[in-house]
Amino acid sequence: MKILIVGGGVGGLALAGFIKDKAEVTVVDTAPKWGDIGFAIALWGNGQKILEKLGILHEVQKESYEIPWNAEADEKGRVLKILDFAMFRKHGPTIVVTRTELHMALVRRAEQGVNVCFDMTVKKISQNGEKVDVVFSDDRRDTFDVVVGADGIHSKVRELVFGTGYLKPYGYTVWSFWTPKGFSYPRGVIELSDAGSIYFVYPLEDKAVIMLATAKKDTGINNPASKEMLHRVFADFKGSVGHLIDAIEDPAHIFRDQLSYVDMKDWYKGRVVLLGDAQHASSPLTGMGASMALEDAFVLADELGKVNVSDIPFALRRYSKRRGERLKNFHKMSNLIESWIMVKSPLLSKMRDVVIRAVPMSYFTRKIERFLDHEL
Question: Is the model more confident about 34 or about 303?
Fold first, then answer.
């Protein structure tokens, strides 16, 4: 079986690690080499189970930080609700790890026996029923038994094979940056929300990631990020975010983007299949995107490993069915969390702050526990 994986991120490399002993695997990625990328990734128990199956869980956990709690607060920093993560520990500790550490652990697991091509993506994909013909961005051509689009939220594979219109905006602009070393930050996750604005603090052992997001239109998204602009946009947080902005060492290193999600029902078409954010990207509020991509990789590898080349369409149907049912439950859970946090109306924001204090913690935790209890 000859497999092309487009995208060397979490899901793509996990799939390569699972399937490389049973197939001829090629991974292409737009990066010039493996290296430092991104910020931090949360891994719930479901994602860590997949890393254990890959044989790299201990390696990743050694470099991780366990999240003890998550606090939801209003724009003045007044705590509305605290979620104790001890209740989820039966599924494994909920951890945060740098994207680089996770990525390199996956690279080490996958790279032996896998053909990796950097500075490359796909330019054209065509199918004849039995094979998938691919033209790469450097005009090279090759033929594969199956092509996997693991190339993220802006997936080129999705666009070429399924068309456009699946990427939807949340209406939020987001900025992310590291705190400088020595900066004081909480030991748990902090989420502060106002009408149409949110900020998060995700701690690691010796630093933290700050994420600021707003639905305001006057963000100067096309201009370079500056402390002055961020102070202006997030002034409604009554100074609770000001010291974080002041601590930014170099605004040029701030990551900035528009929060978007992918809304599509299909997982495969012919012998081309999607995985991870390419099919089901959602907001970062659940912190479960990487875990879901790891689940995708395990299930797809499991189904492909059961069939010969002629039965690949059957394997993709099985993968689609298993993941489609799982994603319905994931979206119910994530949509609930988003409905509480991503409130744009000032009136609804005030009402939310009152109600969230009164709602039992079990209202939030039981849906997460049921989701984590589900066996793949």
Answer: 303
Kind of pairing between the strands at 146-149 and 2-6: parallel
Whether 322 maps to a domain, the answer reads yes
User: Is residue 362 domain-resident?
Assistant: no
Q: Which of 96, 245, 229 is nearest to 176 (CA)?
A: 245
CA–CA dist 130, 146 (Å, integer): 9
Buried b (16+ CB within 10 A) or exposed e, 262-291: bebeebbebbbbbbbbbbbbbbbbbbbbbb
Q: What is the DSSP letter of 32?
A: S
Which tens digit of pLDDT belongs to each residue from 231-249? Answer: 988 988 877 788 889 888 8
Q: The CATH number of the domain where 16 resides is what?
A: 3.50.50.60
Q: Are the C-beta atoms of residues 189 and 203 closer than 8 Å to each other? A: yes
In terms of Cβ atoms closer than 10 Å to its own Cβ (0-12, 13-18, 19+), residue 90 is exposed
Does 155 fall in a domain?
A: yes
**Residue span of the structural domain in which 144 resides:** 2-67+92-167+261-341
Q: How confident is the model at residue 252 (pLDDT cuts 50, 70, 90)?
A: confident
User: How many folded domains does the chain comprise?
Assistant: 1
In DSSP notation, 92-158 reads: ---EEEEHHHHHHHHHHHHSTT-EEE-S--EEEEEE-SS-EEEEETTS-EEEESEEEE---TT-HHH
Query: In 3D, which of 292, 256, 329, 302 has the Cα closest to residue 48?
Result: 292
